[in-house]
Amino acid sequence: MKRKLLRIGWFLPILLGGVGCTAARIVGKTTIAGETGVGPGAPGVGVTLNFINLGGTLEESFPTVQTDAKGEYQSPVLPPGKYTVEAVLPGYVIERTTVELKKHGKKKAPFVLKKIREGQAKAVKEGKDDNIPNPGEVQIKPPE
Questions:
Q1: How far is it, in rounded angstroms, from Cα 14 to Cα 17?
Q2: What are residue 87's DSSP bridge partners?
Q3: 47: confidence class by pLDDT, cuts 50, 70, 90
């Protein structure tokens, strides 16, 4: 009886059209860059990760997950193909990488997020300060 079950067990995934045969996932850890912007700092908690299937339909192209308290994540089971993985956290630069999944296994995609630095703001000057001439000051020469 065991022999027959083993034989049937071997054919079962083929008979079902490969259901359950593909267990491919993208896994990784996100960290926040240190204050200097170099090197990992604290775990990236609450980071949203988007898995965009570059060869799939729109419906299957955008599963998302969030990182846990350790900054780790695991995608849902994904079909084989090429994916762009985005790590998104408000106030930080969006990081992206491309991963190619085969039928089985896991691919790692770690991320280090850097804080968005604000630039120095300049005040908007009035028109007279920008050397914009008044209509009476413009002199146009007629063509000769």
A1: 5
A2: 49, 95
A3: very high
Q: Is 40 part of any domain?
A: yes
Question: Residue 7, SS3?
Answer: helix
| Cα distances (angstroms) measured from residue 114 to each of 7, 41, 43, 68 | 54, 10, 12, 19
In degrees and rounded to multiples of 5, residue 32 shows phi and psi of -100, 130
- The torsion angles phi and psi of 82, rounded to 5 degrees, stand at -100, 130
Question: d(Cα 31, Cα 29) in Å, to the nearest integer?
Answer: 7
More confident residue, 14 or 115: 115
Note whether residue 143 is domain-resident. Answer: no
Q: How many domains does the chain have?
A: 1
Return the H-helix or E-strand segment holding 51: strand 48-53
Contact yes or no for 4/64 (Cβ under 8 A): no
